[in-house]
Please model this.
Amino acid sequence: MFATKAAKKKKLMDMPKIRKKAEGLGIKPGRMKKTELIHCIQTAEGCTPCFGTSNGQCPYTDCCFMPDCLKIR
Ligand code: SF4
Model:
């Protein structure tokens, strides 16, 4: 399976960290849900808004959202 070991070593990004990251990119988090906010961050970074679509596997081991993402099935 891709990236499972790497994901276990990383810590989950909690909402305050995600909000801070979003604000750093000029996004106003408001009342956005976690998934919506992460998608905005990914788009702002020029990435595909893929959070939640890994189905437990992903080759992008440097993704900071991986520990959360891999849990979503
Ligand atoms: S773990 Fe993979 S699918 Fe999930 S957000 Fe990161 S890059 Fe996208």
Remarks:
- The chain has one domain: 4-69.
